[in-house]
Amino acid sequence: xxxxxxxxxxxxxxxxxxxxxxxxxxxxxxxxxxxxxxxxxxxxxxxxxxxxxxxxxxxxxxxxxxxxxxxxxxxxxxxxxxxxxxxxxxxxxxxxxxxxxxxxxxxxxxxxxxxxxxxxxxxxxxxxxxxxxxxxxxxxxxxxxxxxxxxxxxxxxxxxxxxxxxxxxxxxxxxxxxxxxxxxxxxxxxxxxxxxxxxxxxxxxxxxxxxxxxxxxxxxxxxxxxxxxxxxxxxxxxxxxxxxxxxxxxxxxxxxxxxxxxxxxxxxxxxxxxxxxxxxxxxxxxxxxxxxxxxxxxxxxxxxxxxxxxxxxxxxxxxxxxxxxxxxxxxxxxxxxxxxxxxx
Length: 344
Hints:
By secondary structure, the chain is mainly alpha-helical. The chain has helices at residues 2-39, 57-68, 76-90, 98-119, 131-151, 172-190, 196-214, 218-238, 247-264, 271-274, 276-295, 305-311, 316-340; strands spanning 157-160, 164-167.
């Protein structure tokens, strides 16, 4: 038992160093980003309509002052460059970090295209790529990564907590694609308030990093804690009042890679627990869309739910902080279930 704790402690030292290195490197890269962001005016364009085609009166009323401040977007590129640099330099492993790294960069590429179109003021209403195009692009990435996951890494099971392994064979590929697409879009939807998505992502990656470490997937744990370090640097500037936004380049990158990490730790059923608020955010938007299209009425004053809470009088900071508290509890509960349910 003592040797086990000793080995775990030794494994944690390089993980801590990678997290600190990511934080420091991202902080060093931030002035470079801000120089170009302000010089070339990376201002995020305000949406005029929602994905259902309705006017966003409530959203506009709540956030028009924020858009008047001309806050730059695409800051997620700082974290992506940081994580890629540290992983390639110190933590690259074919079996553990290649897949989440490719997912991170691929998701960032899709998000960057969307952000650039947004910056150019193209795209009807929502300003950017059409949702259907983004959906297809992320799904294609998920399918490709799922193929590698199944054929090259040999994964073909889903762990059922307290029960055991369920062998599903090649069905792991479409399941992988679904998880990646759902997680990528859920994180993207959640990125709507200062500090909200960044904080929830840091908590989620911390939880999966602990699970990976307990599974002795040290390289994968290192990737997770590298992400956490980069996210903490981003949060330094993104907490209210935000100096910049991560943009789709960040939300898709982190969302897709979070889904990959969940699959690689065989913790698929823990993902909606650890990331419960991503589920709630995406679910509230889905309910709003379905209700609007089928019944012609809205369930929420504004969707996703963080905007509804603002609309009923919650200050932006209260929504963010309370979501962080829930996210912390959910992440802790997820790690506990991993320990009790046979994931480690």
